[in-house]
Design a protein that fits this description.
This protein is mainly α. The protein is built from five helices and two strands. Helix 3 crosses helix 5 and helix 4 crosses helix 5. The protein is flat and about 100 Å long. About 10% of the residues have low confidence.
Length: about 180
Amino acid sequence: MTQFLLVFSLLLHGITFFILIYFYRHFKDLQNMDKMEKSIREVDDLFHSYLLELKDENEKLLNILRENGKNVNVHQTDNRSIHSNLLTDKNMEKLRTEIEKTNVKQAEMDTKTEERKEEVETMPEALYTPESINHRDVVEEPSLKSSVLSLYQQGKTVDDIAKQLNRGKTEIELIIKFHTKS
């Protein structure tokens, strides 16, 4: 009876030990997941703050562009200020003329492409002749192995094959032996 209780006690201790190991590993995994979630949150917060800074900088730039060349102080995030005349009236006029020129060029290109599309669509198919490609049929001679095997399958002897292909008898025998083994 004492042996039975001793074995039962050892079994309970073993099961308890394995359960403790399982819960310990599970707890460590949860801790690692918490650390990963914290790092993900930190990266997310970092991106969020970076995007806010970019948005502020973009708004400042838009305000500068709206003021049309007035002297403006631009403050950077490290509290340094840059005094500059970004856009003077002359520069603004130059920019406007360049933009107008590019818009005109773009419109011309668009009309040209539309005209070409219309020409292609109205072109009858009878006028279209595809390029003809001339290929000379190159007939390759069969390899020695394939010609030997085809003649051998036709029932010719090794001597006849060797005479027909102008090869040695032993060479033909070797090719046939290698082929019949594989």
